[in-house]
Structure formats: C-alpha cells, structure tokens
Write a structure and sequence with these properties.
globular; alpha+beta; 70 residues; 29% strand; single chain
C-alpha cells in the first residue's frame, strides 16, 4: 500500500511570523476539515511527520490562544 499513514501528524501554520499567527495540529486524515473549521488561508506552511509531535509542546507554550489541536 502506497502513501503515508492516515495517523501521520500534520501542522498548518498561517502567518507564522506575525502576531496574529494561527496553528492547527491534526492527523493526515483530519487536517482538511480542521483547517476549514479554523478558516486558515494563505500564506500558510504545512508540516508533515513526526516532527510535529516534537514541536507540539513548544507551540503550546508560544501562543496557546491561537492553536487548535484536533
């Protein structure tokens, strides 16, 4: 079976260098609906892989009010 696992962690960061940045963290199978619900748009960066789980603690302490974890 080709492709990535559906439980692969994914993060999307919108306006990452600005004060109003927003982040969502989910899995590959749910990221589309999470991004839509959070109403994220451009410019955004998509991070895929285990590195997302390593960064989760850092992101939570950085800007907790702008993060949606699903």
């Amino acid at each position: 079976k080709a492709g990535m696992a559906v439980d692969m962690p994914v993060a999307v960061v919108q306006n990452g260098t600005l004060a109003g940045s927003q982040h969502v963290i989910s899995t590959l199978s749910h990221i589309e609906s999470v991004v839509t619900q959070a109403q994220l748009g451009s410019p955004s960066i998509i991070i895929i892989g285990q590195v997302v789980t390593l960064a989760l603690a850092q992101v939570m302490t950085f800007s907790e009010e702008n993060i949606h974890v699903a």
